[in-house]
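Input record (one chain):
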Amino acid sequence: MALTDFAIVRRSLRSRMFSTCVTSLTVGVAVALMLVLLSMRDSGRQAFARGSGNMHLLVSRDSSPMVSILNGIYYANSPRASIPWAKYESLAASFPLDFAIPTQLGDSYRGFPVLATTEEFFSAFEPNIDEPWVFEAGGGRAFDKSFEVVVGSTAAGETGLVVGSKIFLTHGIAQSRQLGQADAMAPHEHREFEYTVVGVLAPTGSAHDRALFTALESSWVIHAHDRRKLADKDIRTTTEADLLETDRLITGIFMRVATRPGQQVTASLQTVFDQLRRDTSIVVAQPVQQIDALFAIVSNIDQVFIAMAAVVMVSSAISIMLALYNSLEQRRRQIAVLRVLGCSRPRIFGLLVTEATLIGLLGAGLGVVLAVAGAFAAAAALKEAIGLVVSPNFGLELTLAVVTGAVLLSAAAGIIPAIMAYQSSVADHLKPLG
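The corresponding structure, as predicted from the sequence alone:
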């Protein structure tokens, strides 16, 4: 029974199984790398946009607006400089604002950041635009007094905290000491003050899911207690009555300029922003602006990685060409036999190109599988590390474009070996061996 062209190609690939697997894997890696980079670029930006929610401005005393956003919204580090409470009151009263929510970072629980703030954080601030905070079913409520704590969804899941749990907070980050601090202010557990979990939040897809939230007053009290113990080791308790003005410190202010109902922006935003920037004692950041700046930097890196993926894809095509060329020396007699049996030169040419195309198709299919697995693994790692939920978007058009490009490039790689096979002399390669 006569063999079909596909059967001939299939047997050829099977006879060189190792070479076929290696070249297909090379194509697969190139396709996967390209797909992951392209699919996660836009979804990554959308993920970073979550968390700033309906705030317009973030005020802090960090070194730059970018650092302010990374610390205040994504909990990258604890801010080093504080804002006095009197300064906060002055700023809140000086501008037409829908809200000015004070925040303080510096404590943690099992490595998860603790944000001290006010009840307005849950009633006025939305972590995502038009998506207010939601508590898990049976997940309690927001705190309404000192030493109550609300837990983000990721933090709750990884620590096992539920409504009613009792915990102690840690000053600073337990895993490392902050440079420049005295031994007494090194990371340590506030064992004198027990907190009660009163709420567990539903997922927001933002870095807030990895945080715990408590009242400002309780944070001031536990740090005032540290101050008082330095002066008198016999101190057993501290209350809000013992607070000094120097204890009432914050590290950030979430601001929203007054807007009309249903609107997210207002013409007065730029005016307020410009006036705040004249105050050299504070740093003012617009989250949207800083996220755009961040991704302008990231996009440059993206282009480098995409160029590297393209180089890998071209390299995979060269690998296919070399694999077919090397096998050609061993297959010239087989080709000559096919010619004698009536196989035309164009058909021989087509068999080699088809073989290269099939390797590219196998590699592209493997690449799609690797891309999906790799993208979701990377998304899980991002969620674990900083709480961002990145949803890889493998659009049909994008996937088809990359796969088609890989297959066409593979087919092109088979042209040179196919030309050599086309020009192969039947008489020369049918001479008796030896």
